[in-house]
Amino acid sequence: MNNDKLTELADLMFPDVTKTIEDYEKMYPERNLPEGAIVTRFAPSPTGFVHMGSLLGAFQAYKVAKETNGVFYLRIEDTDQKRSVENGIVGILNDLKNFDIVPDEGMIDEEHSIGNYGPYIQSERMEIYHTFAKDLVLRGLAYPCFCKPEELEETREIQELNKERIGYYGSFAKCRTMDIDEAITRIKNGEEFTVRLKSPGDFNKKIVLNDLARGEIEFPENDLDVILIKSTDKLPTYHFAHLVDDHLMRTTHIMRGEEWIASFPIHDQLFSIFGFEKPKYAHLGLVMKIDENGVRRKLSKRKDPEASVEYYHKEGIPKDAVKLYLMTIANSNFEEWLDNNPDGDINDFKYDFKKISASGTLFDTAKLFNISKNYFGKMKAEEIYDNLLVWTDEFDKEFHDILVKHKDYAIKVFNIEREVEKPRKDYVSYSSIKNFVFYMFPEYFENPNYEFNKITDKEEIVNILNTYYDKYLDLSDKDIWFTKVKEMCDSLGYASNIKEYKKNPDAYKGNVSDVTGVIRVSLTSKTNTPDLYEIMKLLGLDEIKERFTKCINNIK
After folding, report:
1. What span, in angstroms and rounded, lies between the C-alpha atoms of 508 and 351?
2. What's residue 303's pLDDT?
């Protein structure tokens, strides 16, 4: 092959390239890290939106880097310019930050980054990609392709008709054998071209991927002359950018979705051609959902609100509860570990590549909510108050101001049935708390909707409330309080003993739970609440009297 002609062709294709690969090797040397340190990355498009599946991948990549004293960095893959949105990077950073995933390197806002291996935005690395592509042209391993879209489509139709493999390879790679002089002339004439790999692969040979999550996977060697540099914007394709960036940023482990498994032969070949050390791969299962028709499908950004990471922030599901759930679907042995270490910190759990689920992960919101309830059950009232204050400041300003006004009282409300052997587990999110406690705040009890269900006769309700307040109300001690309630039941014809009532229900108007139900509904409007005595103690005698009066006036 004429090296002078290849040099002329390469210079013509990449007239602005002034550096060599060796220059970039010096600019981005091997990282000085402890032995065994893992370097991972999260590399989204700047859509401003982190999908739950992406968060799961980022979460795992972040964890393994932290566990090994390695590096986790954020790289923005914006080579598909149509997907970019305004402030897309900030949106991604905020979504990650909401779950305590803070990159060691990479973008920190739309324009700025930290770290010595940037730029961390692909569109700003054009010169680097072109340098690597030019090197391939100089070695006769890449060439300009002038095929128009309609020509490629015609080739595809022929392949389909003849039941051939689809793709640009072998005799179907029309520009592969083009004379260099012709290519030079066409470029000088201003024809658009892509840059394609001149694949040295043999489809009849096999290669093996030792996937960290799936074990050995066998593939045919790549023989496709894939596009490396696009014609219109001269940006690289994912395949080529992956090679250049992950090599120069010294990425050791690639954790990505299983949809990229089929691309491995291309990536493996590119690393081999350049003689670069190959990263290890772990292909993660897709995040799936069973829809209303019972069909298992991929979690969809368009159809499923829970697919958006922002959804959990707006709902106010504690980030640590979400992380606990993510770990249950990241490693199959985490739940057993959590059962054995109920008070353990997630950072104490050792991530295991061998425990990654290779099949698609079923996203179970019911399980997430249950984990969240258990998480709330372990929180102190003060912690709930502080976190709720932050959440309401952004999403419910009215409730926020009420909480600020009644700080000490609100903490006592959140502490009802909390510091006990089996704490109550009502709260699933910060957004749900108000629905469970609204009646404890006078501001939300102006026009209650009473839910009387066992005793509904208005005169009987009025009689119970008046009798109780006038003769039996005593909050000095819980046992005394309940004894007085039972005394009132006996005086009004209700069974004070549930067992006695069950033996002979016709002998009574009802039982003690029916009577306490009337008191409960009159004070809270709800039939199901935490401990009634604790509620009454917090409300106090004056508020109890006011609420009894409000209820009586309401039902008359």
Report:
1. 61
2. 84
Confidence at 555, pLDDT banded by 50, 70, 90? confident
511 contact partners, CB below 8 Å, separation of at least 6: 489, 494, 495, 496, 498, 501
Residue-wise pLDDT for 67-100, tens only, equals 999 999 999 998 876 666 777 899 899 999 999 9
Phi, psi values for residue 289, rounded to 5°:
-145, 145
Give the integer Cα–Cα distance in Å for 482 and 534: 12
Q: What is the pLDDT of residue 82?
A: 67
* CA gap 259, 244 in Å, rounded: 21
Contacts of 107 (CB under 8 A, 6+ apart): 74, 75, 76, 89, 93, 113, 120, 121
Q: Find tokens 């793709």 and name the residue.
A: 167
Between CA 10 and CA 471 the distance in angstroms is 100
Alpha helices in 88-212 (DSSP H): 88-97, 126-138, 149-161, 180-188
The answer to whether the Cα torsion of 160, 162, 168, 172 is positive or negative is: negative
Higher pLDDT, 208 or 305: 208
DSSP code at position 102: -
- Tokens linked to 164: 């051939």
- Strand segments, DSSP code E, in 236-320 are 253-257, 280-284, 287-290, 296-298
Say which residue the tokens 């939300």 belong to: 444
The two tokens of residue 16 are 């602005």
- Residue 484's CB is within 10 A of a number of other CB atoms, namely 17
Return the amino acid letter for 504: N
CA distances from 385 to 105, 230, 311, 370 (A): 34, 54, 21, 21
Residue 509 contacts residue 499 (beta carbons within 8 Å)? no
Q: How long a stretch of residues is the chain?
A: 556
Tell me the C-alpha distance between 68 and 36, whole Å.
6
Which domains are delineated in the chain?
3-20+126-284 (3.40.50.620), 297-377 (1.10.1160.10), 381-444 (no CATH), 458-555 (1.10.10.350)
DSSP 8-state class, residue 470: I
Q: Are strands 105-107 and 71-74 parallel, antiparallel or unpaired?
A: parallel
131 close to 17: Cβ distance less than 8 angstroms: yes
| Amino acid identity for residue 461 in this structure | I
Q: Is the pLDDT of residue 362 over 90?
A: no
